[in-house]
Amino acid sequence: MTQQTEHSHLILTGDRPTGQLHLGHYVGSLRQRVELQTQHPQYILIADLQGLTDNGSQPEKITRNVLEVMADYLAVGIDPQLSTICLQSALPALAELTMLYMNIVTVSRVERNPTVKNEIQQKGFSRSLPAGFLVYPISQAADITAFGADLVPVGDDQLPMIEQTNEIVHKMNSLLPQPVLRHCKALLSPVSRLPGIDGNAKMSKSLGNTLTLSASEEEIHKAVGAMYTDPGHLRVSDPGQIEGNVVFTYLDAFHPDSSKVAAMKAHYQQGGLGDRQCKNELETCLQELLAPVRQRRAELIVDKEMLMTLLKAGSEKAHEKTQQTLVAVKRGLGLPVMF
Ligand code: TRP
Fold first, then answer.
1. What is the CATH number of the domain that holds 111?
2. For an engineered disulfide with 53, which of 2, 133, 200, 223 has Cβ 3.0 to 4.6 Å away?
3. Is the pLDDT at 5 greater than 80, yes or no?
4. Rg of the chain over all Cα atoms, to the nearest angstrom
5. Range of the domain at 133
6. Which of 165, 152, 151, 66 is nearest to 109 (CA)?
7. Cβ(85) to ligand 1 under 6 A?
8. Is the predicted pLDDT of residue 117 greater than 90, yes or no?
């Protein structure tokens, strides 16, 4: 690895291991990570502790998905030689930094975070809101800053986390004799949010509208067949709507030939192009995209030992990196660093 300077970029991204990754993850972030790993040092965090913040009473749901996510990463082309994949719970510096940051963030500030607000409502927590869940943006700020990351490829729902991280960076740095933490910015992918196959604004496992990266041929076929289009497009000859038409959103996200998609859109809007034909076109691209991923994934997931060995090696490297930040912050705050 090349020597890093203060000005060279460093990337951190992560995922909660709450289930297998799906097409929403793929277009929102995974696809970009595969490209970025050849350009900058990249760390990828399997955020099991963050996963526990709303799964505290079913830890097995999180622990059993860690290696599933690891297999997803490798299957889409994340290369452990280029990207360091690590496990959040193996990195004590992240938890310690979270404790330190919690003292410089007010409760009302975390309550104002729109993503958290939304999730609290969606999950119907009200009085049963776990304290850990409320403060997970602070823990995410610890993740990002501990690695010294300045670029964070995420979906647009994560923008409030980046904003909050930068506030923490500013506040903490002002308490230290010299700045230690680095400001960061989000790297949004061109398609940062994929709607669910049912037309819901977001693809999400809890909404049951996903296509996982290991979806079978039959599942892909069914999902595309059931996909939401324009309910007003009754006859092939009728002019159809593109806005809110999930099939076209997906064609935009996945079709390699954008001029062909543009021509299809014009034809559809004019009338004369049927939903079935558009769906066939989309299904072909999705089958082509997912067939090799599904096959690689099936080979990887049976070798749990290999997956764990890779995760351990990445976590060791990440431990060293994050520990350095923790020590610098502790020193700056005047806390003794005993070991
Ligand atoms: N909150 C992110 C998600 O739900 C996961 C995550 C945890 C993360 N720590 C991170 C993302 C650090 C980017 C950087 O997808």
1. 3.40.50.620
2. 133
3. no
4. 22
5. 11-194+304-333
6. 165
7. no
8. yes
